[in-house]
């Protein structure tokens, strides 16, 4: 362990304020209620010193996320020193609050490496011994020494239980939060690892497909020239457009292997929709009139739109309602998009599952589009959501900062 979380130091600061309040209250109760003749100046000096140090500590740890264990050890060492001072001036080992040294050892054991915990334990043992050897005896008051000791033990137990409960609860919450963050990072790493492997394989296959696609394009041109049938020529023209689109996609896949950077290119919404209509001519597309048609988009956004539109089209075809609604608008510095299908909808209890996010009615697919879409959203610092549509179907939306698109381009 090379660092200590700042929440631990902030928790120490909170507990230290509790110690300051408790020490001040104990001095007042022991003096005015129990009638003990305690040395006021040294005791109040210890309370003020601890309070001033805590103000300084809070200012230092406010903006820190990670600190060295030696810093946390120094914080606890100050607490040990002040506690030794307070116990020494108020009865030494006869003071039941001397067992508070154990609280400091417990806090160190929960948050510090083993060697620093041993150092805190050694400091506490030295502090307890110093307060016992050089401490002033507990003066007489309104109650007997045995009664004072018994009530002090009860108060010390309640205080120790409250401190341990508060600290361990906050530490458990921080630990669960850290485990959740690690789980998210692990899932992201596995997904990105698969995407990298897929991209590497795609670049290799792209080189192999380029030549056959070029040959198929030439054959389509020859068929169109030799045929006198208008319908055949029209079908061949459509086939040629599809082949050209395939070749463009293949060349885009091959660019990373050639050392080029396709992420610097941009696309527009009409280009994306034209390519999609060519692939899905039987689907009715309804688009909002005020969509930003000329806005340059990151190629990843174009792929995201293709994935959403294709999944919506598949869901609508299965429900025999081949229609897709697309809405795009700009709100402030964000691009807001939403794709609505007319399929059978989804189970709200499964909406958060990775494999069902884009599966509103679709039962087939490899999930590659889903993984790439998530990667695009994360890369551009956006967000993705899924909601049921009014009536039937599903609405899948996204938000992407325009600044992030300009940076990636």
Keywords, separated by commas or semicolons:
409 residues, alpha+beta, 5-stranded mixed beta sheet, two-stranded antiparallel ribbon, 7 strands, 63% helix, 10% strand
Write up what this structure looks like.
The protein is α+β, with helices and mostly antiparallel strands and 409 residues long. 63% of the residues lie in helices and 10% in strands. The protein has eleven helices and seven strands. It has helices at residues 6-33, 40-61, 69-88, 101-111, 114-134, 145-226, 230-254, 269-279, 299-318, 368-379, 402-408; strands at residues 4-5, 66-67, 284-287, 323-331, 334-341, 383-388, 394-401. The strands form two sheets. Strands 3-4-5-7-6 form a five-stranded mixed sheet. A two-stranded antiparallel ribbon has the order 1-2. The longest helix is centred in the middle third of the chain and has 82 residues, at 145-226. The protein is rod-shaped and about 120 Å long. Mean pLDDT is 77; it is low at 257-264 and 348-366.
């Amino acid at each position: 362990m090379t660092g200590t979380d700042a929440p631990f130091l902030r928790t120490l600061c909170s507990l230290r304020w509790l110690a300051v309040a408790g020490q001040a209250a104990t001095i007042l109760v022991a003096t005015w209620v129990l009638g003990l003749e305690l040395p006021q100046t040294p005791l109040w000096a210890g309370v003020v010193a601890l309070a001033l140090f805590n103000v300084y500590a809070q200012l230092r740890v406010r903006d820190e996320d990670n600190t060295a264990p030696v810093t946390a050890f120094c914080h606890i060492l100050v607490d040990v020193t002040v506690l030794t001072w307070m116990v020494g001036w108020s009865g030494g080992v006869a003071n039941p609050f001397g067992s508070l040294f154990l609280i400091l050892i417990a806090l160190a054991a929960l948050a510090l490496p083993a060697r620093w915990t041993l150092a805190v334990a050694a400091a506490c043992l030295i502090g307890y011994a110093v307060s016992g050897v050089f401490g002033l005896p507990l003066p007489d008051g309104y109650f007997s020494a045995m009664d004072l000791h018994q009530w002090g033990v009860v108060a010390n137990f309640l205080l120790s239980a409250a401190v341990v409960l508060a600290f361990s609860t906050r530490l458990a919450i921080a630990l669960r939060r850290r485990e959740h963050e690690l789980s998210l990072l692990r899932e992201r790493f596995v997904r990105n690892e698969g995407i990298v492997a897929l991209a590497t394989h795609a670049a290799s296959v792209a080189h192999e497909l380029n030549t056959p696609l070029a040959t198929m394009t030439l054959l389509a041109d020859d068929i169109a020239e030799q045929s006198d049938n208008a319908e055949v020529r029209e079908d061949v023209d459509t086939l040629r457009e599809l082949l050209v689109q395939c070749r463009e996609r293949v060349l885009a896949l091959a660019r990373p292997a050639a050392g080029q950077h396709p992420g610097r290119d941009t696309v527009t919404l009409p280009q994306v929709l034209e390519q999609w209509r060519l692939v899905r001519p039987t689907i009715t597309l309804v688009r909002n009139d005020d969509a930003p048609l000329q806005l340059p988009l990151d190629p990843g956004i174009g792929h995201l739109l293709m994935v959403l539109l294709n999944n919506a089209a598949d869901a609508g075809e299965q429900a025999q309602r081949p229609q897709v609604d697309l809405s795009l608008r700009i709100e402030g510095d964000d691009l807001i998009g939403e794709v609505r299908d007319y399929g059978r909808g989804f189970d709200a209890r499964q909406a958060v599952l990775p494999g069902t996010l884009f599966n509103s009615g679709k039962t087939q697919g490899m999930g590659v589009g889903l993984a790439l879409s998530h990667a695009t959203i994360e890369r551009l610092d956006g967000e993705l959501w899924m909601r049921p549509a009014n009536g039937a179907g599903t609405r899948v939306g996204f938000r992407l900062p325009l600044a992030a698109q300009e940076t990636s381009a």
